Every structure is written in structure tokens, then in C-alpha cells.
Amino acid sequence: MFKKVFVANRGEIALRIIRSCKELGLSTVIGFSEADRDSLPVQLADEKICIGPAPASESYLNIPSIVGAIEITKAQAVHPGYGFLAESIQFVEICKASGITFIGPTSNNIQLMGDKALARKTAKSYKIPVIAGYEENMLNDALAHARKIGFPVIIKASAGGGGRGMRKVNTIEEFVKLWNTCQEEAKASFGEDALYVEKFLERPKHIEIQLLGDKKGNIVVFPERDCSIQRRHQKLIEESPSPSVSAPLRKKLYKYASRLAKRIGYQSAGTVEFLADSDNNPYFIEMNTRIQVEHPITELVSGIDMVKHQILVARGDKLPFSQKDITIRGHAIECRINAEDPSRNFMPSPGRIKKLILPGGPGIRVDTHIYEGYTIPPYYDSLILKLIAYGMNRTEAIYRMQRALEEIQIEGVATTVPLHKRIFNHPVFLSGRYSTKWLENFLASEQEQEKKEA
Fold first, then answer.
1. Architecture of domain 132-199 in CATH?
2. In this structure, are residues 449 and 430 in contact, taking their beta carbons and an 8 Å threshold?
3. pLDDT in tens, 49-90
4. DSSP label at residue 201
5. Which one of 3.40.50.300, 3.40.50.10490, 3.30.470.20, 3.30.565.10 gives the CATH number of domain 205-453?
6. Going by C-beta distance under 8 Å and a sequence separation of 6 or more, which residues neighbour residue 393?
7. What is the pTM of this model?
8. Is residue 269 a contact partner of residue 291, using CB atoms and an 8 Å limit?
9. Judging by DSSP bridges, how do beta strands 133-134 and 195-199 pair with one another?
10. Active site residue: 10, 167, 290, 400, which one?
11. Is 290 among the residues known to form the active site?
């Protein structure tokens, strides 16, 4: 049992964790970098402690500093949020050795799923379909397998995420060069250069299944999320349920995600990700062993507080609901609003927020750590706000999101709000017949049109 939780993160997810802790009667401590001293989660936590300078390597990724801060403040548990140390086996093991409850899965869970090549092998061993590929980090054999399965293929970092260490390869001639590029990028981003190869699907849908597992062996899966609106493998918009997933496909996704989680003894919140081809055949691609950015839409369509139950599971509680209790209730869509300038190739736009008007009204939820007068630091991810719309059906959710995007005003920094407005008025998005390649094609066509007009 624990009564004080250390929040080892920043931004909107740190605030989200603090709010759930308060609803459970738990006190909170937040570890913050010098750049985040004036942030909203630092203001709202019960206690605060500086864990280092602005660079993440010296603060949010600094394990000795964080563990020391936990011990100084006498917190009994730590919530890592997403990113940073959320999937660090080393951090989990050190917490365990120090008697600190890690609010997340076991180190074994993370080890099995954190290495994406190993995760593919594990999924295959449980008869879960994966895309044709090769999991070993051996250049010559990988090239031979690429020839066998046929180009284009995609090279991926085994420890990767967010599109880093990942390249599409169209020809044999490109393979060696891009293999080396991916190795260098993976080493710089993740500290490991292991790669693997998969067949490249031309226009897939990116579908994922959120789940919760407790320490009693119970696994519950939730309605799918469609995360196909992406740019360079970075998600911009998610919705639940997917407009293109049929009942038979949903049944398969539930079965595969549940089977994988049960076989590895998964505990905590997690997400199993799939690609679905044009014939609606699903293929496992990876599992995220943490709470995800897009968890709010699952909360809205299921009525379950994911963060709260993640904390309760870590405390040893049994899930108070079973699979039969989970139904799809309405439709939810999330827009990730970033401090970036789409007109300048999505250049980050840190700086002071001079004006902020947030939307509201029926069916609108805003998860954010920003406020008027707040200065967005240049050191971290550019996500500043998650705008979520909920409706009884997809049409109502879209209308509410369109209204919310018109209401929101952020001045002082460039944001992706104008791009989201254009997407939510595009017939392809409105139809629901989009793939992971649609947004990049849409942006390319916009650039081409601008050149013609110029």
C-alpha cells in the first residue's frame, strides 16, 4: 500500500496523474527540471522537488537524481507517465530494489515487448499474425530476406518509437545505405543500434487495443483506437471506435491483444498495436508497455478511468470490472495540438503564450498544462494540448470538434490548430476512408498547390 506518489514526468500527463491521485486520496510529489519550475503540474502537486537542469538527460532521464528525490520526499510509489523512463527496465529494477512501487508493468513485461524484434517473435510464438519480415540484426541476412519478401520493405529500430531509426526502402541499392542510417539514428536515440525488417504495407490502417491487467491475472481489453492520421510516423489525430473496423475484425483484435497480454502475464495499462491491410487482415507490430497519449478517447467510450485503475492495479487491487462490462458508448476523437508551425515544415515554436482561450461546452475535454502567460520551453516534445470531442456517434463528435477548433485561441506561438481545421473539413477524413499515408499525401498536395499559386 502506498499513500504518496512521485510523478516522474512533466506536461499534461503529469497533471493528469496528479488529478487521478487526488481523486484516490493520495498525496503527490512532482520532480521538475529547472525549465519547468513555473509549469501547472508543479503548481498543483502537493510537493515539488527540482531534479536537475533543463536538458532531459540531466533531469527527467536522470535515474539517480529521480530515485534520490523519491527517497528524500519519502514517496512510496512512482508514476512515470509516458516517454522518458516509462519503459526503462533499469529504472523499474532500481525502484524494485529500493522498495519503491513502480506504477507500470513488470521489468519482464517491458523486456519482452520493449525490444520490437523480440516482441514480433513472442507474438508469432502465440500464433498472432505479424507482417512478413526478419528479426535478426544481421545486414546480409536482412537484405536476403528483403529480396525474398519483395520491396518495398521498412527497416525499424528494435528499441525504437516515434519514427526514429525507421526508413522505407524501395530498392536493393538503397538497402545498405539506409540500414547504416537507421543504425546511427537508433544508437543516438535509444542507445542501441539493433534493427529488423518488415514488408512495407502501402496503405494500411493503424489500429490499437488498449488493455488493463491486474496482479491477479485478469486482462480486460477496450474498444479499438484508429491512429492512422500520422505524419512521419507521429500521430496527430486518433478516434475510437475506428470508422473502418468491422465487428469480425474487432473480435480478432480483442482476441489477439488479450492472448498476448495473458501469455506474458501483463500487469498495468498497455496497448497492443496492429496494422490492418486493405483486406482488413490485422498484423501485430508492437506493444507499448505504458499509458499512452491517446488514452482519453478510450476513457470516454468505455467510461473507465485508465490512469486511476493503473494506480489501483499497482497497489494490488483487482480490476473491479470484467470483459463483459466493456461496451462501446458513443464516439471520441482526439487532436494533438503541438507548438509547431506547419507552414515551416512543422518547425517547433517555443515561447510565451500571450493569449489563451480554451473551448468548452457539451462533449469537449481539454487535457493541457499550459495557461496564459506560460512560456513553452524549447527542450521537450512540442505537445501542448490534447483536444478531445465526444458524441453519441462519429458525426456528432466531428461537429463538436469542428466547433472546438473554431473556439480555441492560442497566441504567441504557432500551433497545429489551423492544420486540424483543414483536416476536419476534408471529405476523405469525414468519410473515414483514410490510411496512414493519407495525411502526408494531403500535405504534399497542399504544397504543390501553393507552388502553382506562387
1. 2-Layer Sandwich (3.30)
2. no
3. 999 999 999 999 999 999 999 999 999 999 999 999 999 999
4. P
5. 3.30.470.20
6. 330, 331
7. 0.94
8. yes
9. antiparallel
10. 290
11. yes
